[in-house]
Records
---
Amino acid sequence: MDRRRLSRQELIRARHQDGFVGRDGELAAFRANLARDPDEPGFRFLHHLHGQGGVGKTSLARRFEQMAREHGALTVYTDESVHSVPEAMAEISARLGRQGSPLKAFDKLLATYRERRHEAEAAFAGPDEPGDEAAPSPGSTFLARAGVTGIGLLPGIGPLAGAVDTTQLARGTDRLRSRIGARLRNHDDVRLVLSPVEVLTPVFVRELGDAADAVPVLALFFDTYERTGPLLDTWLRDILFSDRHGPLAPNVMVTLSGRDALDRRCWADHLDHVADLPLDTFTEAEARQFLAAKDVTDADTVDAILRLSGRLPVLVSTLAGSRPHAAEAVDDPSDTAVERFLKWETDPVRRDAALAAALPRTLDEDVYREAVDAAAADHFDRLCALPFVTGRGGRWQYHEVVRTAMLRLQRRRSPRAWAERHGRLAEAARRAQEQCAGGRDARACHRDERWRELRLREVYHLLCTDFRAALPIALSEVLATAHHEPPAVRLVAETVRQAGEDGDAPEVRDWGDRLTDALDGPGGLVRALTALLARPGLDGPQQALVHRLRGREHRKAESWERAFADYDRSLELAPDDTHALVGRGLTHRYLRDFERAAEDFARARDLDPGLVTAAFQLGEAHRLMGRHEHAITVFDQALELDPRHAQTHGSRAVCLRRLGRPEEALAGLAHAIELRPDYAWAMAERGMAYWAMDRHTEALAEFDRALVVNPGYAWAYGARGSLRLVTGRLDAALADLDRAVGHGTATTWTFSRRAEAHLLNGTEDAALADCDRALAVVDRTVAPDAFRAVVLAKKAGCLRRAHRMDAARDAVGTAAALAPDRLVVRHETALLTSAVAGLRGAASAWEALRDATEGIRPPYGIDPTKTAGVAVVSRCALGDWGGARAAAAALLGDGTAWEDIAEAEFGVRELAELMPEPDAATAGRLAALRQALLRRMAEVAPAPP
């Protein structure tokens, strides 16, 4: 293509102005690659520069970029200021746009993503809903373990995901899925927020190719890749080596520049395609060449610089900065390396400012003014021009090697001045915190990233001022952050570690190492809290707080016994801690031990009558125990404290439905939704209210509405699936119940209902598996015996039909011991006895069942007792054909649910199978009864959609 080529003289001038010296081999290889046709086998489209800090990676990468531009390439240079894949794509698009090659379609989609992401984050930051603490779904657990969830999916976590164990992270993913629908109604928008990389990348790759078509090469440079690699590795690998996001233009060339080698777990299969460029210190020849280019040629001076710098390029550059010509300038053995860095800065004010500005970990102009003396306040721009100071995203930072040396110099030269300067910086950070807080409470402040940054700045400088006095403050901040914003604990731990290193305080450094090491392992926050608990001198209130926080983490991880142990110890130390009481009460509640939960919630309310959470949870405990009238009284008391508490209005309405007052329940749920328009739980409960009124169409519409608002709402899927089962939509019911389980609902009810659907569908192996899953859930909770008995009876039926009689006998025997009067248990006992001893041998059992169903008439509801089947089948088993026809007639009338009729037909069919050779009259009666039931099932079942 036509393009203006630089003249040889322009190339020479550009390189002279650049001042780049050395790295001849790397430059030659890169230049040769640019000259190749991208279609040639030898063309390298991926280069990797790596080596320790200060070896000149950034300088070489910049030189590569300049060479590419000289070749006519479009170039984009990024560094660690990008914190996610979408940010990386946005930065590349913005820089291409400034060069006249905008990615218009991508920019439009990116703008939509940012708007929807903001809405989703607002939803995610809202208050917890019932079910937020449920076990994570398998899909979310997989994402968490794969390390994907933290890469742009969970708002506010990102690269901090290592501080959260996988169970917590998976719950965060489920919570995001559950809440995103509250703000986003369009399916494409939901997918854009949940999977931004999957949606944005194909558009990005396509338009990147369009831009690349207009130039010989499109060169992308990713600097400081040791920081961004964990976020970008998989994405870059996929766009370079797979078709996952569409084909990439062949002339797109990528250069990665970072401290570490590429992660073999990601790149192992593709390393043959990487031009690997490891960098070390300058060779002596390169260092001398560099100094000569800077006009430093005196042999003794050159030797001194080589000795002091260790040939590390950044230090060679610093020492050569003012072109010293005298050996004495660098050969004084009493001077330190730092003094050499600034030896040629003749202005003492600027020299002192450069030293003082090394004290903060990062700089902006405001921090600079606090760090330096007033005389140097206006010299910030001069400081930023120093070769060891780099700026990114409005922040400036010293090179690590230089800063470390400067800190050591100041600490040793004048401990008093060191402490005074750090104290001044700590006080400035404290004032900025107060302004940022704006009167908000501790929880709100800790959730504000800017406030947390200022707080950590204060903690760092306090530790450097007087570590003995400040260490308790720092460790208390660890606890406060663990209380209000657990993912940010790692930042506090790293701040403590760095303060110990920079301030040469071994005790502080050890604490930082201990905390960061703990956070790196499984159950990281629990381990960190355990480390804090072992600290000598921890007072009683702090011990109580540690136990309470550790109990919370154990509860989230479903380590119930450990959770109780910590909550109990916390309450021994602080008996009046209402937060610990509520936390322990929630643990009892999740284990379905509602009595003990109510005791804890009641005590918390008594201690703090204004605590709405305690009042609401107390009402919930009574509701879950079936004490609906008492629950309403407690909910009314909670509403006196907060009349706009939507959850209380919703739960109160559910109690009204349970008390047979569905119209009042509908009104209460409508008010809850009015207060909180995204309240999917209330919408689903309104569906249950319509169901109780046999208004099935309206009930299904409410479940649908709840799932539009919250596409990940597992319980709504379960409820809709159960209603579809009742009304005869068997395939749709199974699909919904599968979704309920897939989205994380691990309840006895869901598995039990799916087992019913599998039985009616004829898939008995699947029914047996769901019975076992239901029992596993029961084993983890303090469930009523009747729950276990019903599931055991269903399991016994599956085992009996599979001719596993011993196992069936054990299961039904255990069920009978738990709930002997439960109809489903007595029914299965009669069936099993009939299978072994015949109908005559089971006559007494069938007579008892007949008597138990006298006077029961449809509708039978959704209680899993198989009442309809028992009423018909028990009479058939006794040869009471008149009674069987009467019971069946009631079933065949209007208003009976399809499931009840199907259960009766299933029972009659089972009974027929237990009669190996019935007489003709009996066989005919059973067949006629089955046909009548089947006809009615066909009439009741809706037409396929």
---
Amino acid sequence: MISTWLRLELRRRWRSLLVLALLVAFAGGTVLASLAGARRGDTAIDRLAARTLPLTIVVLPNQPGFDWAAVAALPEVETLTRFPVSGFGVAGIPDSAEISAFPPADGNVLNTIERPVVIEGRMADPARADEVMVTSQFLTAYRKKVGDRLTLELMSKEQASSDDYDPATEPMKGPRVPATIVGVIRSPWFSDKIVGDRGVIVPTPGLYATYKENILGPNRYVNAMIRLKDGRAGLEAFRRDLAVVSKRGDIDIWDWELKWVRPVRNLNHFEAASLLAFGLAALAAAIVLVGQSIARYTAATMVDLRQLRAVGMTPRQAVGAASAGPFLAALAGSTLAVVAAAVASIWLPIGAAALYEPDPGLDIDWLVLGGGWLFIPLLVLAGSAAAAALLRRTGEHSGRRSAVAMAASRVGLPVPFVVGARFALEPGRGRSAVPVRPALFGAVAGVFGVLAAFTFSAGVNDAAEHPIRFGQSYQLETFLGFNGQEFAPVDKVLAEVAKDPDVIGVNDGRIAVAESPPAGAAGEPGVSVTAYTFRPVGRPVNVTMLDGRLPSSAEEIALAPVSASQLGVKVGDRVTLGGGQKTIRLTVTGISFLPTGPHNDYRDGAWVTPAGYDALFGGAHYPFKFHVAEVALRPGADLEKVRARLTAVAAKAAGRPGVAFTDPLEIQQAWQIRDVQALPLLLAGFLALLALGAVGHALATAVRRRRHEVAVLRALGMTRRQARWAVVTQATLLASAGLAFGVPLGLAVGRTLWRVVADIMPLAYVPPLAVWALLLVGPLTLLLANLLAAWPGRMAGRLRIGHVLRAE
């Protein structure tokens, strides 16, 4: 019986089934692509690391002539590769672009450590100086391709030997090396960065071997990447042995997992969660929107099956026959959805995860796509069967009455209002039944979702446009010293800088890295904490405090949130840190953001007083790793004019040029926020479509299914204009219900979601307010609802009364 009925349905209603299949394909493809993209992006960095023999630590003694052979012989070391802290230039590309990776000093890199995946082309011959590899962003940024030629520029021997040489102010005068791009590679170390990166060029060890004197002068040094045999578990033993063989206890060691892998993983988690939320929201929208079409199709079928039920068709057969068409359409639609999602994978994952994806391009996630191919038809079948069963039961009873419509009738409101209220709020019965509840839910969900999405988007835009949300309250910074050597008389220079009328705050910051002792019985690795001095010159630079206060004595410290979490402390706790030959105990007075520096971002590090810094690092090999100053300007100051003025003032105070004021380092999380700016707006579009579909479906269905009631009322004297206004009233009531419940819910949920994101990032939470969305949501909702009512209202007004009554 079901098979026979389905053949009849396919002949006479194939267009409706085709439209239903396309709706399922569109909605399903969007959802499946989002879910698969989220899964792919969330695992990108781990899949890349699993294939590339990534480094464990980076060791930075920054000391000429350092004995790396002794370090390589330590029992914890699996492999070590050196890199000179010196680069090269490329003809036609300014030095400020920073596209040169450190030249490898030996053949271990790209082989036994940081062995990259090849995205395009091939690996370079390690013995050849005229072959290079690049990362993906380089090809895009400079419109290059594999096989193109570049000219590498090296320092002259005199420039390499000079401590004062700066490639930003003087061109390199050494050999010019023609080189061919032979491949595009990717590994955790050789990867593009999310923060405004234009890619890098990776030379071979052959370049260093051939032109060593043009790369490494007598006063320059090499640092190293190391892969430990036991991974991070061997880090503390390595620290102890390194201190013995180097006779230094202050060597900066980057724990690559903490410094780079976890932050990247967190970035990917955030973007994957955003894409997942978009997919789930699209799924909810699809269930309601496509569900409307399924319910309508099923209702029409159940009406047609009444005659067959009268001659013996069982209720179960009727439900099966009504569900067969939607199920077949969903099966075809889900197949198209899987194909569409597979094609969409070429452009996924999004954001930062795309920079670390080891296999870019087409990717078929069989778990998601296969599961979706099965789940979508079953979901449609369940929904259609439930609608058929519900319609079978409710069709035998009178539809419920609306208290609002009854009250309107009792108080004598105009006929259009009473009829419109009944159409909007009473489902009716049998062939006159309309989907009232789905329409009301769709209107509420549409307004709620759109306002929540715009409110969340306001928070995203605010964070992307205001670096102060990430603690960056200064607009300029300058380097004043490195490895214990100052480039200028700091006190004199900063005193003159603080006098500038556009300067509202200056901080004199010495930077070094402190270490906590190993934690736990298993000897978990200690935590590296980049310590900054808080020493205002004149007025202080504003510091974003999340809790507590800044330190005021040598025994106090304020930690950034990530460092506090890694150390397992909060305000009021005590923490043990060491920076030289001894360790000291400090009281945590606050949790705050830090400046983004060469060895930390705004979420990790610590503020200490100058006296606290001296207590920590008094016995260190170098009294500071970096000496910097942050300069805050008054709102509205001309940045370029102030920069030029401060550079001149600093040169005069120092007695020579060389103190440059630069923009602060860009914040990676701000770029991450920008990567997902479009998702809330796309979600708002989906939910707006949901609302329009629900309300438009209800209006059109009400007029079509209740044409008999309209005809009777027209026969009793209701005018064409009153018939049109009845539909307008119906639309207005649905829109008003959506606004009454959707506006407060949308505002509250949007702010709550942004608060969650602010805590995860972290960033300073400011309650977002989408002013224009809040002002326009009411008028636009009413306008769109009444525009949707125009055609159904016209149909109601032009109804052929005699024809309808005779047919009914």
